[in-house]
Amino acid sequence: MATLLYQNLGFLDYVSGLAVQEQLVARKQQEPSPDILLFVEHPHVYTLGRAGKDSNVLAPQEVPVIRTSRGGDVTYHGPGQLVVYPIIDLRSKLRKDVHRYVRNLELSVIRTLNDFGLTATRRPPYTGIWIGDKKLSAIGIAVRRCITFHGLALNVNTDLTYFERIIPCGLTWADVTSMQKELGAEQNLAKVRERFVLNFAEAFGYDDLKEYFENMAGWVSSGMGLTT
Fold first, then answer.
1. Counting Cβ atoms within 10 Å, is residue 172 exposed (0-12), middle (13-18) or buried (19+)?
2. Where are the alpha helices (DSSP H) in 44-142?
3. Mean pLDDT across the chain, nearest whole number?
4. What confidence score (pLDDT) does residue 213 get?
């Protein structure tokens, strides 16, 4: 039986969220453990991927800019956005197939949006999920010794004006949208999260879902158990 754990970390700053991921990756490398799906909302932040160009950050103003280890270019995280960090062992789930992993992430988002009446698609060669030229979900991952971290961001009730201060994903021609904008009304973030868990489990073939209750955010506030 393939078990998937999931936990909502709530509102947590980006650096602390990354520290939680790093700790879970280290655990999985040391001994077998169930895969886990982390959900979080971040305070306003711009993040640059490994190959991201500083020139794509136009006018961050008061918003911090953080260089990070995921793939991709610059993106924005903030309130009203569903950020998902899967910590998965690709050796057991997908035979080390990173491309299939990304396709399954995209499929999980597409099915979730379908559940809310939105028809969205992939747009090769670009990652993420789109409605026409408007990007609704950005994906930027990292893999360390076959364990995944970082993940995706789905704009649910996101304030899209923050994207005007950057060139999102380095694509000058692309616009950014949200579920709220496309559907004309604010969406229930908890319901979106619930549907995503189910669609993710189906796409990746998990047959056992369990909510996880360890206080991982407490690792950060106490300074205990964190890797460096």
1. exposed
2. 90-93, 98-115
3. 92
4. 82
Compute the chain's Rg from CA coordinates. Answer: 17
With residue 204 as reference, give the H or E element that holds it: helix 189-204
7-16, 146-155, 211-220 — which is least confidently predicted?
211-220
- Concerning whether 169 is annotated as a catalytic residue, the answer is yes
Instruction: Say what the pLDDT of residue 42 is.
Output: 98
Nearest CA among 82, 58, 66, 6 for reference residue 37: 6
pTM of the model: 0.93
The b/e string for 156-170 (b: 16+ C-beta within 10 A; e otherwise) is: bbbebebbebbbbbb
Q: What angle do CA 167, 97, 17 make, to 5 degrees?
A: 50
Residue 147 has pLDDT above 50, yes or no: yes
Catalytic member of 37, 74, 129, 169: 169
